[in-house]
Write a structure and sequence with these properties.
This protein is of the alpha/beta class and 358 residues long. 31% of the residues lie in helices and 16% in strands.
Length: 358
């Protein structure tokens, strides 16, 4: 398969992209302690502006939705101002950038939340595992099961954050419905044990997602809103009794909105029985693939019609000029996992472009 297909322009909803090598959202925990993006973050994304599209890291819509220390937010004035410096830097460098809006739900801890609040979730199901707090590693707690009357308030927080992302100069937003955070907690039945209108059948588990999508679309227009899902990812103690059927329903539930894209994490190495093509068919719009793709697998996925574009996570983390590297079959920098989460400039803005090596 000729890899030139990666460098053909593509339209995702209302956004024109010059190539199909996208930057996947990557939490790096370099924001100020109140979630305000810094100049360092602006520099990091500016260096990666040759991506067809940058999908910026998970950004929480509420002080009650925090998951990680020094992860960014989108709910107070300083967040808007910090993100504006980021989007301006990316645009000056010729790039495009979406904000990935999220709420952690149960993947949090009282010490991360205002007034030591109990984290919220669709059901009072405690996830296995630990969270890093300012006083060290702590087990997750049993979350507070959202009452029906509380849900509209959370949806409104997504809408307010979507508005703030627009004011901050983003080109669109991606809703984080993957990897075990609040929206995904509603989607998968390991975490959602509700028996009301928000739980039970896959259609009902999709209700919270549909409400959030509707609210965010009313701010942005559908052509500037994407959704990310991870049907098989067990991260954050997630499970579903029938992911193939459930995620087919979830993809179909989004079809009527006319969204910019559906972003599906499904490991590239898993070649048999792929779910992404079925989700694409039911969704009926552009798809972004992600999960361990290299040039060959990315070109094959686009060539076979599984996806319009591919998001690269770790390869983009370590290679600010990833599209040029893939286009020229150039060697890649080696990622340093010890600097993935937290810290400063090292392992963040000091990965060289190829032109700086030769
Ligand atoms: C350091 C790191 C941080 C990540 N942060 C996020 C995130 O904020 N939001 C998200 O949806 N996925 C996140 N992911 C998952 C990546 O977006 C991506 O799905 C994963 O790395 C697989 O793609 P890759 O093989 O191209 O790296 C993260 C992954 C890594 C390694």
């Amino acid at each position: 398969m000729n890899h030139n297909v990666l460098f053909e322009p593509v339209r995702l909803g209302g956004v024109e992209l010059p190539n199909r090598v996208l930057m996947a959202p990557l939490t790096r925990q370099r924001a100020a302690s109140d979630g305000t993006p810094t100049e360092l973050i602006a520099k990091h994304y500016e260096q990666r502006a040759s991506a067809g599209l940058i999908i910026a890291e998970m950004t929480v819509v509420s002080p009650f939705g925090r998951a990680y220390l020094n992860a960014p937010g989108m709910y107070q004035d300083s967040h808007r101002e910090g993100w504006r410096r980021v989007t301006e830097a990316v645009h000056r460098a010729g790039g495009r950038i979406f904000s990935q809006l999220a709420h952690a739900g149960r993947i949090s801890h009282p010490s991360l939340l205002p007034r030591n609040a109990t984290p919220m979730a669709p059901s009072a199901v405690r996830p296995a595992g630990h969270v890093y707090t300012s006083s060290g590693k702590q087990p997750y707690v049993t979350p507070h099961a959202l009452e029906v009357g509380e849900i509209a308030g959370v949806v409104a927080e997504f809408a307010a954050a979507a508005r703030m992302a627009k004011d901050a100069g983003f080109d669109g937003v991606e809703l984080h419905a993957a990897n075990g955070y609040l929206i995904d907690q509603f989607l998968r039945d390991g975490a959602n044990q509700r028996t009301d209108a928000y739980g039970g059948s896959a259609e009902k588990r999709a209700r919270f997602l549909r409400e959030v999508v509707q609210a965010v679309v009313s701010v942005w227009g559908a052509g500037h809103v994407g959704v990310r899902m991870s049907p098989f990812n067990p991260f954050n103690d997630m499970s579903d009794s029938n992911p193939r059927e459930s995620f087919a329903v979830f993809a179909g539930a989004l079809s009527a909105f006319g969204l910019a894209y559906l972003h599906v994490i499904e490991p590239a190495g898993q070649s048999e029985g792929r779910l992404t093509p079925r989700m694409r068919e039911l969704f009926g719009g552009p798809v972004i693939g992600n999960g361990g793709f290299d040039t060959k697998a990315a070109a094959a996925a686009i060539g076979s019609g599984e996806a319009e574009a591919i998001a690269f996570g770790v390869p983009f983390l370590a290679n600010p000029d990833l599209p040029a590297r893939l286009a020229g079959n150039l060697p890649l920098n080696t990622p340093d996992s010890s600097t993935f989460y937290g810290g400063g400039a090292r392992g963040y803005i000091d990965y060289p472009a190829y032109s700086q090596i030769v």
